[in-house]
Amino acid sequence: MYAPIKLYFMDQKLTKSLAMTKPFFESLDSLCVLHFLQNILDEIQRSEMQLQRYYTVVIDLHRIVMNLIHNLNQRLTNQFFGMNTRQVLKQIEAIDEQKVIVLIQSFNLFIKTVIDCTESYYAKDKAYYETLSCFHLQSNGFLIWKDLLDVVDLISIPDLNIDKLYNEYCDLKVFYEHIIHTDGKLKEQVNTFIAKQHEHINSSASPMMSETENDTSDDENMTHKSRQTSDAHIRSDQLWAYLLNVNGNTTPNMTKIVSYLFSIPCSNAFVESIFSKMKHSWTDYRNKMDVQLVAAELKLRTNCEYTCSYFHDYFLSQPVLLRKIRTNDKYERKKQRICEN
């Protein structure tokens, strides 16, 4: 990974600044530290990327933070900092064993510092987020009445009928236990339900990618997009949408709680992404765009799931729309809006 950077600096003419940089890239110690940071920072980044997903909400936060702390502690226990780091440490050990001890101590100190900072930042609200996490499928308290009741006491939703909520809970519990013991896996059933919510999806082939196909699994692979087969990686919002809609009985009280919890984001990353998209749309060359046009483009960029090929086929099948695109008719709506204002 660092070979091109190293080669670039080593091939430059010797200057004062290069004289300081060259020993760094020639040192095995530096190479070992860089490999270590690559592994540990990647671990941290994976958790950060999970927090930035647009569908990550408050019930996910406890699991993400605790998984990060657990993984870092596991590295301390196993004293494993990556295969490349291990190989370089062996090379250094053949030269100077004491230096290896110093490097490992510094690695341990770095990881412990990250853990301490994370725990100190999270400690204040840990109990709150841990209570809410029972609505996540991977939680030990998932569909446990006592934990659900703790959430009700914590968030205090008005006009909530607890007696009816208990009846709804019992129905959902029976329904959930039934579907997880059927032949089809829960994830497949949820994916089928979500796919049916999209207007243009059919069972054989689809011109549009569903959200479950397009999502990146941050839990297992941060690089490659792939359909996960494990029930453990079902999106919580899609699972609850499935449970509340497919279940034969109405669940108004449970729906209130789920709607409340899934409306609280973990971070402002999604909002920031909207501003970023707006910046790309409303440029210096397009500074005469009105608010309605910017809003329309943002809605398309954010919510549209059509593939390019589907868009192409759709436009070709709409002669009226094509005619308006080729003529001044496409400005009629704008003129009408201006007149209305």
TrEMBL record:
It comes from the Eukaryota. InterPro entries: HATC_C_dom, RNaseH-like_sf. Pfam families: Dimer_Tnp_hAT. Residues 204-228 are annotated as: Disordered. GO terms for molecular function: protein dimerization activity. Transmembrane segments: none annotated. Residues 244-296 form the HAT C-terminal dimerisation domain. This is HAT C-terminal dimerisation domain-containing protein. It comes from Didymodactylos carnosus.
